[in-house]
Amino acid sequence: MISLDNLSISYGGWTLFDGISFLINPKDRIGLVGKNGAGKTTLLRVITGEQQPTEGAVTVNGECTIGYLPQQMRVADTTSLIAETAKAFDEVLRIEADIERLTKEIASRTDYESEAYADLIHRLNDANDRYHILGGDTREADIERTLLGLGFKRSDFERPTREFSGGWRMRIELAKLLLRRPSIFLLDEPTNHLDIESIQWLEEYLKNYNGAVLLISHDRAFLDNVTTRTIELSLGKAYDYKVPYSKFVELRAERRQQQMAAYENQQRLIEKTEEFIEKFRYKPTKSNQVQSRVKQLERLERIEVDEEDMSRLNIKFPPAPRSGQIVADVKGVGKAFGEKRIFAGAEFTIERGQKIALVGRNGEGKTTFARMLIGELEATEGDIKVGANVNIGYYAQNQDDLMDGEFTVFDTLDRVAVGDIRTRLRDILGAFLFRGEDIDKKVKVLSGGERSRLAMARLMLEPYNLLVLDEPTNHMDMRSKDILKNALQKYDGTVVVVSHDREFLDGLVDRIYEFRDGGVREYLGDIWYFLEKRKVESLQEIERKERPVATKAVESNGGKLSYEQKKEQEKLIRKLRKAVESVEKELAKVEKEIADYDARFAVATEYNADDYAKYNALKEHYDRLMHEWEKASYELEITEQQ
Q1: In 415-478, which ranges are E strands?
Q2: In 3D, which of 211, 212, 253, 210 has the Cα closest to residue 229?
Q3: Terminal CA-to-CA distance of the chain, rounded, Å?
Q4: N or C, which end of the chain is more exposed by having fewer CB within 10 Å?
Q5: For residue range 180-226, what is the model confidence (pLDDT) as tens digits?
Q6: Concatenated DSSP letters of 520-580
Q7: Residue 104 backbone dihedrals phi, psi, to 5 degrees
Q8: pLDDT by residue (tens digit) across 522-578?
C-alpha cells in the first residue's frame, strides 16, 4: 500500500535517516517508537508529502488515502460542532450530487444499447459503490457515534466550535479524520487530549478499523492494545518487529545484547590490528602485512550501537512532614460557573498516606476539584476542610505555561527557592536531566517534556505532605513516566493525581473518584478494578434503557412474567442473596477480630506497632466489605422489586 525505499534525510553534516526502507500493508497496526529526536514525527510528514527526503522515495498506491493527525493544528472556529464535523463528508456530498446528476441523465436517455449509455450506468455504479464505502447512507449516525465516543455530549452538537478549548478542538479534528475513513491513519500522540473512556473507545475503533494504522504514542497500554507491529527508529535506521510494544521491549534488549557482543568483538579486532600496524610499521620485512592490515581496517564496516541513555530522571521527593490523619474532609461539595453546574454532592475523606486518582471525562470537574482542594477556587455549595499541618504542593495541567519564557532554567528555580536549598539547585536540576549548559537555556526554547520536568523540579524545593498533580505525565516519555511513578510510590505523603494514563496509575493508586454526569463516585480498588466495574455498569445502563420494551412485553402477557423469565429471575435473586450472605459472614468475622483488638488495647501497658498496623488494616478491610455489602444489598433489593 505504501512503500518507503532507501529514505535518507540530512541537515548539513548531520544525518537523521540513512537508507530507511519498509512496507505498510493494508490492515497493519504499527507503533512508531524511538528516542525524542529520532525523527518519528518527521517520518510521518515525509509519508504525507509535507517534507521531502534528501534521498529515496515514498510510493503510495494510487487508491490509498492518508489521514494525518499532527500533534498541533489549527481548527476552524466559524461554525458549530456538528457542522464542522460534517465537513468530513465533503467527498460524500460531491458524490451524492454526481449520483443525482447521473440518475437524471440516465432517466432522460433512450439509447439503451449505446456505449455512452453503458458508460453512464458504469459511472453511476462506481459512484454508488464509493458512496457506500465512505458511509454516505449512515453519515448522520456515524457523526453522532463518533462524537459521543470521543466524549462530546448531544448538548454540545450545536455549540460554536470557538467555545471549545484547544484539547476539545483537537478531538473535533480527530472525529473528522475518523469519519473520512482513509486507507491509513497517521496519528501523532492521539491520546494527549483524551480521557480514559475516550482512549478506550478509540482503541476499539482502531482495532476494528478496516484500514491501516501507523501511530506515535507514549501511552504503553494504548500501544499494546492497538498495535501488532513495532518499528523503532534508532541511529538513522529502522528496525521492524512484528510484535506489540511490550514484546518489542524484550526483543530489543536481546538485540542490543547481540549488538554489544558484536561491537566488543570488533573493537578487540581493531585494537589488535592497530597494535600490529604500530609495532611493525617501520620494519621492511613486514611492510606488505602492515599495508594489508591498513586496507583491512579501511574496508571494515564499523558496528554502531545505539548509545543507551544511562541518564536517569533521579527523582526522590523530600520526606513529607507529618500531617493530621484527616488530610481533607469533603462534605456535599459542588461547583457551578454561573448557570452551568459542573458537579455536586462530592462526599468523601482523604486520609494521610492515601494515593488516590481523580478520573472522568474532560469537563466533568476533575481539574476544578483539584483547584478547589488547593484553595484556588471556592465551592459553590458544601465545604472542603483541609486538615491540620497540611502543606500542599500543586502541579497544574498547564504548569509549563505558567513559567516565564524569558527566564533561564536555573533562574526559574532560583527565584522561588529560599534558604539552604539554594545551594543545591544545580544538583536538583541535574536529577531532572538539566546538566552543563542546559541550565542556561531559556524556558521558551525547551520542549514540552523538558518544561514538564522543570515544573516538577519546582515541587522539590519545599517538603510538602500533600501533592496534587494534574496530568503530570503529559509530554513525558515512557522512561520519565516510569521513574516519576516509582518516586511517587516511595513518597510517604498523600497524593491526589488527575490522569488518564492507565499504565501510570496502575500500582500507584488504590482508590478512584470518578467525576461523571454531575456527581462523584468512589471505587475502592486500582485503576483496572475501576475500568472493569465501569464496563459492567455501562452494560447495566444499556439494559435499563432497554427495559421499558421488556416491560411492554410483560404487560401484553397480562402483567406476568413468563415461566422462563420467572425462573431466570429467581436464579438471579438466589445468586445475589448468596453474595450478600457471604459478605455478611466476612463482616461478622472482621467485626469480632476488631473487637478482640479493642479489648486488648484497653488493658495494654505498652505500644505494639505490629498490632496497631494489623488493627488499621482490619479497619480498612471492614470499610471495603461495607462498601461491597451496600452495593450487593442494593442490587438484591432492586431485583426483588421487579
Answers
A1: 466-470
A2: 212
A3: 56
A4: C
A5: 888 999 998 888 778 888 888 899 889 888 899 999 988 888 999 99
A6: EEEE-S-HHHHHHHHHHHHHHHHHHHHHHHHHHHHHTTTT---HHHHHHHHHHHHHHHHHH
A7: -65, -45
A8: 998 888 888 888 775 554 554 444 444 433 334 344 444 555 666 667 777 888 788
